[in-house]
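Hi,

Apologies if this is the wrong queue. I'm a grad student, and the batch job for Alpha-D-glucose-1-phosphatase from Paraurantiacibacter namhicola produced an output file that my downstream script rejects. I'm not sure whether the problem is my script or the file. Here is the sequence I used:
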Amino acid sequence: MTKAVVFDVGRVLIQWDLRCLFAKLIADEAELDWFLTHVVTEQWHFQTDAGRPVAEIVAERKAEFPQHAALIQAYRDRFLETVPGPVPGTAALVDRLAAIGVPLFALTNFGSEFWPQFRPTCPPLRHMRDVVVSGDERLAKPDPRIYALAEERFGRVGDALFFTDDNPDNIAAAKARGWDAVLFEDAAQLERELQARGLL
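Support response: The file is valid. Your script probably expects a header line. Output copied below for reference.
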């Protein structure tokens, strides 16, 4: 069976940083740092990746920090502004792999409500035969169950899957299932890994 390549999305295909949105809304750097450390944090956001409704977590956060209600609402209304653009070079690798017929998939931690807004803005996703989105499944990496689900959906197991992700825990979980998994650093490093496996 032809080895397939499985991409993470955030910080592999696209840049993602909550600061990109909130720097537009909070002028003071110290206040911005405090807000991103205590109010709209990556850990708090992760609940949407795991399948919790955005309205639910936003309402809870507004109740906890009523003085920041408008900023918390901006997280919901302007989420795409947390994506400043593509990770340099990765889309070109996806295009090259697709052109030579390598099976391509994606496995991403992403909120199900944000995904339909985001997907059309990410051209490499058009090449993916299937995408497992954590928020849709209510399972998020590195939970072993989302890797098992991906194997079912992608029709491959173990070493027939080459996976790249920017999170070491997600790579470790993939390796535990026997996947050929490599921590993403940048497109040049990924290109070398793909070439070493004869995929490019």
